Every structure is written in structure tokens, then in C-alpha cells.
């Protein structure tokens, strides 16, 4: 199980870091159930709390999320991002996206423990962050 999670994380990181333009083709072959999985999150809103940094994340569709910084360095910032998703296990999801600002995000959302484990990438820096997830609506 850890090997599968590790492999998934590296595939996501590779996609996020390269800015792969063939994500839809890759997603269709590697993540055949990604739309079904994403539909479990569509229409829902969560608060990600990383301690200093806190975000509201709304899953608008099976491919688009909207985030808004409510505390910390991103307070007041917001954006819509295209994301990909893969189910790791029951109530555990691997999600990745590339932000228009250049940040690359790869995270595991664990709704069993209400935790988020995340890596942020920018300009050669890999920043690991862990936090909690709370359902807003």
C-alpha cells in the first residue's frame, strides 16, 4: 500500500513538475476512475489548515477547484485551478494541480483522519506541509 501511494505521489509530482501537456491522455490511461472519484468531492467546500496558512477549497467540478487564502501568506489571494485526482483507498485521495502562479501542488486528502499531507513546488524548492481538513459545506 505504501509503495502504491509512493508511486502515485511520484507520478503526480512528475506531472506537476513537468507541466505535462498530455495530462488528459495520461489521466485516461492511468486514472480511469478519476471522474467517478472526483464526483465524490464536487460541490463540496473544505477548510485546509496548515497552522499559519489556511485555505478554503471548493471543488467546482470533476476537474476545477477554487481556493481562497483566509490566513497566512496567501490571505486574500484566490484562484481557480484544473486538478487531477486518484483514489488511494476508502476516503483517501491523491490530488495534484499546477497553479497559474507557477506553484505546483501535490496532496493526499485523508478523510478518515481529516488530514492533508501536501508538497508545494516552486523554482526548484520542494516544501512539505501537513495540516487538517474540515468540511465547510
Describe this structure in words.
The chain is α+β, with helices and mostly antiparallel strands and 137 residues long. It has one domain (2-135): Lipocalin (Beta Barrel). Helix content is 23%, strand content 47%. It is built from three helices and eight strands; from the N terminus they run αααββββββββ. The chain has helices at residues 2-18, 23-30, 34-39; strands spanning 45-49, 54-59, 64-71, 78-89, 92-98, 104-110, 115-122, 125-135. It has an eight-stranded antiparallel barrel with strand order 1-2-3-4-5-6-7-8. β5 and β6 (104-110) form a beta hairpin. Residues 1-33 have low confidence and may be disordered.
Tally of contiguous helical segments: 3
User: How many DSSP-defined strands?
Assistant: 8
Poorly predicted spans: 1-33
Strand order of the largest sheet: 1-2-3-4-5-6-7-8
Radius of gyration equals: 14 Å
The CATH architecture can be given as Beta Barrel
Approximately how much beta-strand content do the residues carry? over 45%
Spell out the helices and strands N to C: HHHEEEEEEEE
The percentage helix is 10-25%
Query: Quick one: biggest sheet?
Result: 8 strands, antiparallel, barrel
Averaged pLDDT, please? 80
Query: Termini, distance in Å?
Result: 31 Å
CATH superfamily: Calycin beta-barrel core domain
Find the structural class using helix and strand composition: alpha+beta
Under CATH at level 1, the class stands as Mainly Beta
What is CATH's topology name? Lipocalin
Amino acid at each position: 500500500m505504501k509503495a502504491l501511494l509512493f508511486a502515485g505521489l511520484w507520478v503526480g509530482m512528475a506531472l506537476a513538475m513537468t507541466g505535462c501537456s498530455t495530462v488528459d491522455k495520461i489521466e485516461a490511461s492511468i486514472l480511469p476512475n478519476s471522474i467517478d472519484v472526483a464526483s465524490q468531492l464536487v460541490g463540496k467546500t473544505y477548510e485546509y489548515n496548515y497552522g499559519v496558512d489556511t485555505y478554503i477549497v471548493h471543488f467546482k467540478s470533476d476537474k476545477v477547484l477554487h481556493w481562497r487564502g483566509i490566513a497566512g501568506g496567501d490571505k486574500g489571494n484566490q484562484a481557480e485551478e484544473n486538478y487531477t485526482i486518484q483514489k488511494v483507498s476508502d476516503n483517501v485521495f491523491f490530488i495534484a494541480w499546477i497553479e497559474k502562479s507557477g506553484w505546483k501542488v501535490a496532496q493526499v486528502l485523508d478523510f478518515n483522519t481529516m488530514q492533508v499531507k501536501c508538497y508545494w513546488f516552486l523554482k526548484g524548492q520542494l516544501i512539505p506541509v501537513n495540516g487538517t481538513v474540515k468540511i465547510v459545506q
